[in-house]
């Protein structure tokens, strides 16, 4: 919410507060501020009067102007704007002025002609092009004849303002209006504000428009009829306030509805009465009903959307955007002015579904002040009478379906102190309630507060009242105390194991990522063999975040693509997080490598990412965690290369997948050369899988090398399995150090070379004992696999 400081001055006396002081007060007592800055940063500007304007002798587009910048002081300024002319009132940046972008104005010669300043457009002063009048977009800003020479042009245009951009939380809908911010800031400054109560002349006639509400999602609907309206440009003071708030001025009628929306927080809509007719029916839309909105887009509606109709066809998507057929245009003479209260959830659903986020929908979906609906409408009517010459019909057409009951809370100062840990006096609490302009009754020490309708965020609970007291008192003033408990925090075994995984991977040079848990539904099956019933987000912000992920690789591979697109080629990423299905949530680990894993320029060493590098990282992790795994060929996940992919097995159960991504998939997703892994951490972090420590053996070990010849289609893992089973406890280490095919080995066979280490913790092994075990291993391999000693 962008708040104009000048606008706040209409409600509060801010003369004794600097911008820095206001920043601190608002941050401490109202809400956080994203930015606070001057609307225009330029300095040393004056209003000038062009006395002479001649063509430059050496240019076909430059003008040499004589400009009176102060009474009696005339400067020569060269200007290239096509609309500069004799007699024009202009904005002059004098020598020494500094414009946005640290652009300093100095005396200069332009094609041989001296120039002592610059004639400015609003864009050169930092105002966005979309806010600039079409007449001045290709030239400088021309001012009206009443502009005084030598005066401050920013003050004249209403641009001498400070914009306070508030970071309003979703519950504080009251802060989406100048009046609401003034209430809260006034409480912090101990100033009472007087809200606007409009007054205007009326024509004593019956309202020609009838209103009927046929849906429970519209609590009440009011409209006024205004005749003989003149559509024209808004006055500069109103345009300046709209620009400060980030809204583009259009015409006086539309600008007034936006102006009141910003000041009071109540969305309004103006219909062309002659195009609308004399009947308004508020109902739910029909499935498949179409409406072309003001942005000239055809919208398809359904029964969840509220529409305003002329009795037959829809003319407005209620609370979101008006329809094109009843738009206020230059020839509009009569207006129907709408002010209503719509159900917040219904507006949010429609806004999200249609992808239409407007100033109106933002306020409706966060709740508006039910009691301010009529006052805002009347304020807009008053402004239209003053600025558009409107004749206002006295009767208000309305239909009220729901009338909220007053909400009350009973509380005492002692309750507030017990929660906050403070020692606030009853008199001080009383003062805070007065500053907040609460209506309350006090009996003995008990306050019965009637919650103000402007504060729709307040629930009838003591907690919200206590929070308001804390804000006004100042969070920094609340004493800090340690919790009175002897309990000591600790990490669970699962948390310790998860943290150990992070430490091990980080120590090997990998970087941890955290990605979105929500993905597009169409991406669910990219990295899993089977898509389980998924968890859908009820109201996703976008379709790209519509369901909960079932694989960490969705986010991790996207991170690889994001980095590669920005020329960050060498990546080693991992993520630990939950994956979700309809009835299950499980912790997973995923790793993705791309480019060079390590490289040293001084000796030319380079280690590119590869399947075996990632397998080595995984094995190192499993070894340090004391977790035994096996790898078997795997082709069920289509995004992985069918010949370079393996299932990771533990005790015969698949716990993950490792492999190169499929070349076509990698190309389509801009992640060429990526190797990935994903495993479940369920077993690894289980307390059943604790580390076991053994003392270093004091007896010497015996190492033997075996070269085993077997069929090519027999995995080395299968050979290892039988060697381990036969070696039993005496075989303490086994490593595959060579695979050979070629001379002296049949075409359909391969030779696997293993290094075997034997130890006995109780004695020194004899060579004859090791030979006996070797013979048992060879017999087992021959019997099970047909493998023989080479």
Low-confidence stretches: none
Largest sheet: 7 strands, mixed
Number of strands: 44
Helix content: 25-40%
Rg value: 38 Å
Q: Features of this protein?
A:
single chain, 44 strands, alpha+beta, six-stranded antiparallel sheet, 790 residues, 19 helices
Task: Walk me through this protein's architecture.
By secondary structure, the protein is of the alpha+beta class. The protein has a seven-stranded mixed sheet. β4 (63-70) and β5 form a beta hairpin. The radius of gyration is 38 Å and the shape is elongated. The model has no long low-confidence stretch (mean pLDDT 92).
Task: Briefly summarize what is shown.
The chain has about 800 residues and is an alpha+beta fold. The protein contains 19 helices and 44 strands. The longest helix is centred in the last third of the chain and has 19 residues, at about 765-785.
Topology:
Elements: E1 2-4, H1 5-8, H2 19-29, E2 33-38, E3 45-55, E4 63-70, E5 73-79, E6 89-93, E7 98-99, E8 103-104, E9 108-110, E10 113-115, E11 118-119, E12 142-143, H3 153-157, E13 162-166, H4 178-189, E14 202-203, E15 210-213, E16 218-227, H5 236-244, H6 252-264, E17 268-272, H7 273-276, E18 279-284, E19 290-292, E20 298-300, E21 306-309, E22 314-317, E23 321-322, E24 335-342, H8 344-354, H9 359-365, H10 373-388, E25 391-393, E26 397-400, E27 408-412, H11 413-420, H12 426-435, E28 439-443, E29 446-450, H13 462-473, H14 493-507, E30 511-512, E31 518-519, E32 547-548, H15 553-565, E33 571-581, E34 584-594, E35 596-600, E36 605-608, H16 611-625, E37 630-633, E38 640-650, E39 653-661, H17 663-668, E40 675-680, E41 702-711, H18 716-727, E42 731-740, E43 749-758, H19 767-785, E44 788-789
Parallel strand pairs: 14-25, 15-18, 30-33
Antiparallel strand pairs: 1-13, 2-13, 3-4, 3-6, 4-5, 6-11, 6-12, 7-8, 9-10, 16-24, 16-25, 16-26, 17-24, 18-21, 19-20, 21-22, 22-23, 27-29, 28-29, 31-32, 33-34, 34-40, 35-36, 37-38, 38-39, 39-40, 41-43, 41-44, 42-43
Helix pairs in contact: 5-6, 6-10, 8-9, 14-16, 18-19
């Amino acid at each position: 919410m962008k708040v104009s400081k000048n606008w706040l001055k209409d409600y509060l006396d801010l003369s004794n507060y600097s911008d820095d002081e206001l920043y601190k007060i608002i941050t401490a007592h109202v809400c956080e501020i994203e930015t606070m800055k001057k609307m225009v940063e330029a300095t040393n500007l004056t209003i000038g009067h062009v006395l002479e304007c001649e063509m430059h002798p050496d240019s076909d587009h430059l003008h040499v102007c004589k400009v009176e910048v102060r009474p009696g002081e005339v400067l020569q300024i060269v200007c290239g704007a096509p609309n500069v002319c004799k007699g024009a009132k202009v904005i002059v940046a004098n020598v020494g002025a500094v414009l946005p972008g640290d652009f300093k104005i100095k005396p200069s010669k332009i094609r041989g002609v001296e120039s002592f300043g610059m004639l400015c457009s609003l864009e050169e002063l930092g105002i966005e092009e979309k806010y600039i009048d079409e007449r001045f977009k290709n030239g400088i800003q021309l001012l009206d004849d009443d502009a005084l020479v030598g005066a401050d042009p920013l003050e004249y245009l209403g641009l001498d303002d400070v914009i306070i951009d508030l970071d309003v939380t979703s519950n504080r809908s009251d802060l989406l209006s100048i009046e609401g911010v003034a209430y809260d800031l006034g409480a912090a400054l101990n100033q009472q504000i007087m809200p606007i109560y409009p007054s205007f002349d009326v024509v004593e006639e019956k309202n020609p428009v009838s209103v009927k509400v046929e849906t429970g999602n519209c609590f009440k609907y009011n409209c006024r009829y205004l005749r003989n309206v003149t559509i024209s440009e808004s006055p500069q003071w109103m345009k300046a306030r709209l620009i400060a708030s980030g809204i583009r001025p259009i015409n006086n009628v539309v600008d007034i509805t936006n102006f009141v929306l910003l000041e009071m927080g109540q969305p309004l809509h103006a219909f062309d009465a002659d195009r609308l007719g004399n009947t308004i029916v508020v109902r739910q839309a029909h499935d498949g009903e179409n409406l072309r909105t003001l942005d000239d887009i055809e919208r398809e509606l359904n029964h969840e959307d509220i529409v305003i109709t002329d009795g037959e066809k829809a003319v407005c998507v209620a609370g979101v955007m008006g329809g094109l057929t009843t738009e206020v245009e230059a020839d509009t003479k009569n207006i129907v002015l709408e002010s209503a209260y719509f159900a917040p959830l219904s507006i949010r659903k429609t806004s999200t579904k249609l992808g239409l986020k407007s100033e109106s929908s933002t306020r409706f979906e966060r709740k508006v002040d039910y009691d301010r609906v009529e006052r805002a409408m009347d304020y807009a009517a008053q402004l239209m009478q003053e600025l558009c010459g409107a004749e206002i019909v006295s009767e208000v057409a309305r239909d009220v379906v729901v009338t909220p009951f007053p909400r009350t809370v009973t509380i005492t100062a002692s309750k507030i102190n017990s929660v906050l840990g403070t020692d606030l006096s009853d008199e001080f609490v009383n003062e805070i309630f007065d500053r907040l302009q609460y209506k309350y009754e006090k009996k003995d020490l008990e306050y019965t507060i009637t919650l103000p309708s402007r504060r729709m965020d307040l629930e009838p609970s003591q907690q919200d009242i206590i929070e308001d007291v804390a804000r006004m008192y100042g969070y920094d003033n609340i004493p800090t105390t340690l919790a009175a408990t002897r309990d000591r925090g600790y990490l669970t075994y699962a948390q310790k194991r998860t943290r150990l995984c992070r430490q091990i991977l980080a120590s090997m040079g990998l970087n941890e990522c955290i990605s979105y848990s929500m993905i597009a539904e169409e991406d669910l099956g990219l990295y899993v063999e089977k898509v389980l019933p998924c968890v859908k987000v009820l109201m996703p912000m976008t379709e790209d975040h519509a369901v909960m992920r079932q694989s960490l690789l969705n986010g991790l591979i996207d991170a690889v693509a994001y980095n590669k697109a920005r020329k960050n080629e060498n990546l080693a990423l991992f993520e630990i997080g939950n994956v979700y299905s309809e009835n299950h949530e499980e912790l997973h680990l995923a790793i993705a490598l791309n480019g060079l894993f390590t490289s040293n320029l001084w000796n030319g060493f380079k280690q590119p990412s590869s399947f075996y590098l990632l397998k080595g990282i995984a094995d190192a992790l499993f070894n340090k965690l004391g977790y035994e795994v096996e790898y078997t060929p795997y082709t069920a996940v289509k995004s992985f290369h069918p010949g370079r992919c393996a299932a990771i097995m533990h005790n015969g159960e698949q716990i993950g997948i490792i492999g190169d991504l499929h070349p076509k998939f990698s190309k389509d997703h801009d992640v060429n050369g990526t190797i990935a892994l994903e495993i479940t951490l369920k077993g690894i972090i289980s307390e059943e899988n604790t580390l076991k420590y053994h003392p270093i053996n004091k007896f010497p070990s015996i190492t033997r090398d075996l070269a085993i010849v077997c069929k090519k289609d027999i995995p080395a893992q299968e050979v290892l399995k039988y060697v381990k089973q036969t070696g039993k406890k005496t075989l303490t280490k086994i490593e595959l150090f060579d695979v050979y095919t070629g001379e002296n080995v049949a075409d359909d066979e391969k030779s696997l070379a293993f290094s075997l280490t034997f130890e006995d913790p109780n004695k020194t092994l004899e060579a004859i004992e090791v030979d006996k075990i070797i013979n048992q291993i060879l017999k087992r391999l021959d019997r099970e696999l047909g493998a023989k000693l080479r």
